[in-house]
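Hi P.,

Sorry for the delay on this. The queue was packed all week, but I finally got your sequence through. Input first:
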Amino acid sequence: MEIGIDSFAAAFDESSLAVSAAARLRQLVEQIEHADEVGLDSFGVGEHHRREFLDSAPAVILGAAAVRTQRIRLTSAVTVLSAEDPVRAFQNFATIDLLSRGRAEMVVGRGSSIEAFPLFGYRLEDYDALFEEKLGLLTGQGVYPRPVQTRLPIWLGVGGTPQSFARAGALGLPLMVAIIGGEPRRFRPLIDLYRETGERSGHRPEQLKVGVHMLGYVADSTQEAADTFYPGYAKAMTDIGKERGWPPMTRASFDAQRGPNGALLIGSADEVVDKILRHSETLGGISRLTFQMNAASLPQLKMMRGIDAIGARVAPALHRHDADRSNDAEAMPER
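Then the structure:
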């Protein structure tokens, strides 16, 4: 299982005070560089077009990080493809691929907010038709520059609609599922639909990879992780709730989401590793998991400590688990 970080470049701190945009973007590049240093597999930058975030041009941020990193894969999280020019998107990420010597990827989808549609002159009700048309164009045929990789990896980012899961399976694209609340096990029927559709469409099982994007933070103790993450997270979720009709976030709701079956990966390294393994088994196997930490608008020091904890204790434990399972499988006698 690959382990990564996703970021939305929040423009405000955990006390809702505006931060220096220039300083915050430099800090984000430093986070990507640090994630590379501690051995994480991927770093994704989101795309928003509103005052709360500074990630309206993720390809520019990833391009800056490409020349300061050595191994980590650099991806969007997500590219809002319905409101994007697919040729330009391919050119941007092919350029990142050249700068990084073959480490660029894209996760394409609608994203969790809709401000890009009116901003770029599109109608939200045309989302599905626009997405299908532009996804078909995002093959890069005849588009230059060409990336280092023979095939630029493109994941399909999805929320909870069966059509999106089936589309990814029919196209044989790897799947990135955003699970930001509730119980992850509710996604198992949709992931099964993805895999079944993919196999019926002639795609190999190993081609049908499933990634999961989840909110999380790791600290020395469960209490420290929860107390660090909750204030900014509660503020962000309450603000979003005002737009979408959700109730205000409470500590009781937050603590319930931290429970064994909840979506929040908040706790000590051991606790988070156990929870990830349970979710992976419940969902039929996960190829990549990405932590979204800065939904809580954490200060740089706490972000760096969180990256340290994931790189030093979470990712190695999950990699060891994968290696042990592989060795056990090889040791089993043939029947």
